[in-house]
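Appendix B, Record 12. Input sequence as logged:
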Amino acid sequence: MVVGSLATIGLAGQNYLPVPVAVAAAVAIVGWSVLNIIDANFWACRAIAFLANVEAVYFSMEDRSALNPYLGAHPPYKLLDSLRHQMQAAIAILIIVIAYFVMEVDRRAIGGLAKHWSQSSIVTCILWSMPVVIGAGMLLIILDAKALRTADYLRFVTDSPGPGLTKTRAVVRGASLLDSVASDQIVDGKAVQGDLHNTLTHRLGRDKQASKVARGVVVAICVIWVLLILWR
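Logged structural output:
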């Protein structure tokens, strides 16, 4: 991602690519990397959640104090440290790309941006708008992907909460879970995942709302952009 983004900017600096095309490509590469991070994080959390379900078969609530305070619990849906660092790098690269684009626009817009815009051809206006359009499109795709993966994880937590944990070490279940164990000796899987389920439900609502608001803002910006080109 870093190499690809900076390479496209380098091609623009060497005049092998038009600046707006290079910036649009760099923005698309950053967006693609963010989508990969979101997807990788989902599958990593899901894999850990699966292992938590397996752990719950063999351990009890008492074992939490001795072995792991999160035994049987699915992990919270947040970026793993390694993926968070990658996300931070992607944001840093995006800031550099935006700064480069703003500098190039400022360098070329002699006499003011409004005057330069009005004197440029429609093709030129469309070309220099590409980074903004591509960026807006990638933002919508990212927000939709984030909401989709939150929904996927919520579905997993809801449908596969695990077998629950026995309350004490004295109560033992076999791997087949066919051993007869009184229900009052088990903390139900849904109860174990209860806090996470509630958190994911609220987060999914926020993600959907953010996607909806962003879509409205992007549509409004596109309408204004078209009007500016037509009435220039």
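The chain has a mean pLDDT of 85.
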